[in-house]
Amino acid sequence: MGRSFLLLLVALALPLAAACAEASPPEERRGDDGALRVDTVLTGLDTPWEVVFAPGGRILVTERPGTVLVVEDGRVRDRTYARLPVVEAGEGGQLGLALHPDFRRNGVLYAYYTTREDGRLRNRLVRLVEEGGSARQERVLLEAPAASIHDGGRVRVGPDGRLYATLGDTANSGLAQDPRALAGKIIRLNLDGSVPEDNPFPGSPVYSYGHRNPQGLAWDEEGNLYAPEHGQSAHDELNLIRPGRNYGWPLIQGAQRRKGMVAPILHSGEEIWAPSGAEYVREGPWEGSILFTGLRGESLHRVEVDPEDPGRVVSHREYLKGEYGRLRTVVQGPDGALYLLTSNRDGRGDPAPSDDRLLRVEVRGGGE
Questions:
Q1: Nearest to 319 by CA among 29, 40, 66, 111
Q2: 335-359, pLDDT tens digit by residue?
Q3: Among 96, 171, 261, 341, which is most buried by a count of CB atoms within 10 Å?
Q4: Cβ proximity of 28 and 73 under 8 Å
Q5: What distance in Å separates the CA atoms of residue 59 and residue 245, rounded to the nearest whole number?
Q6: CA-CA-CA-CA torsion sign (322, 324, 328, 334)
Q7: What is the pLDDT of residue 73?
Q8: Which of 298, 279, 306, 300 is nearest to 290 (CA)?
Q9: Cα–Cα distance for residue pair 290/227, rounded to 1 Å
């Protein structure tokens, strides 16, 4: 199915829509703490994974089969943005994307994708450079084993100016407890790919370990890092990440405790969230909230923590449950609205999945 757009008026006059399809009215979703106005910005997507807002009003959207779409002047650009040796294998493929803090000047961005080398699947974190409106791979910063499941894939630049990425355990749970292995980790690099001198394990990119399959990274105003993580048959987690700490997988999960291991600040118990992308809300009615999306759970999760204790959850709510299917990620755009990607074409949902879409969610009303 071809790309199509629904007319959308956005604050700051961001060119997010085109007249390629007839506009439909926005949908209102009401809760006890306000209303959500939901607009469809872009349809016809194929298993999208990441959305990034670039200077000049452009939007970059990755699709797991290997595409990086560019939306500019209200249309999806025909010209390929980046040609990378991506292999879509199970949960792997074209995954995370992040801009260098000085992207407007240097055109540098970072991508995480799955490829095949010498017959083996590999996950790569690479540095790209934009030239003439397209991006080329400059060099590989990190390469790790991949599998058809548990490939992690989120890439973000933290408030400390370092590059972070999530790596799943590639279905080999024992590797998560080995600080020397890259699987089952959150890693941290300098923007040039070198290892920061203040990393917890000297000479190693490993920042935290004992993870099963983390797919989200979000920092609050104080620099606290939060990461949602897939559990095994439920027991999904939201973790407060500290450098060098062991988050327990596969020895503990959910409500379990063990000396020397960090328990999550929130977990799903016997319910399945299948959490993915995360965002910290910096403005608007939900300012100060931590958000993450749910795939199997088909919800947008909103978490509030104690301002005096970043590890204590004071409220957890779910929104849009079952309304749009599997939700892959959430990002707050330059206009203050929330942008969500669905993930209904990845073979995990309806036998005849619908096309995926980019949604714009405007929060009207705040907390109690």
A1: 29
A2: 999 999 999 998 665 544 568 999 9
A3: 341
A4: no
A5: 35
A6: negative
A7: 83
A8: 279
A9: 10
Burial environment of residue 11 by CB neighbours within 10 A (0 to 12, 13 to 18, 19 or more): exposed
Place of tokens 């600040």: 265
Query: 73: part of which helix (H) or strand (E)?
Result: none
Cα(262)–Cα(233) distance, integer angstroms: 20
Residue with tokens 């024992």: 174
The β-bridge partners of 130 are: 135
Burial 336-368 (b: 16+ CB within 10 A, else e): bbbbbbbbbbbeebeeebebbbbbbbbbeeeee
Tens of pLDDT, residues 135-159:
999 999 999 999 999 999 999 999 9
Strand, coil or helix: 271: coil
Q: What is the pTM of this model?
A: 0.93
| Closest-CA residue to 135 (of 48, 58, 215) | 58
8 Å CB contact between 51 and 70: no
Amino acid at 94: Q
**Type of residue at 255:** A
DSSP secondary structure string for all residues of 85-110: -----TT-SEEEEEE-TTHHHH-EEE
- Report CA 267 to chain centroid distance, whole Å: 18
Q: How many Å apart are CA 246 and CA 252, to the nearest integer? A: 10
Sign of CA dihedral 155, 156, 160, 166: negative
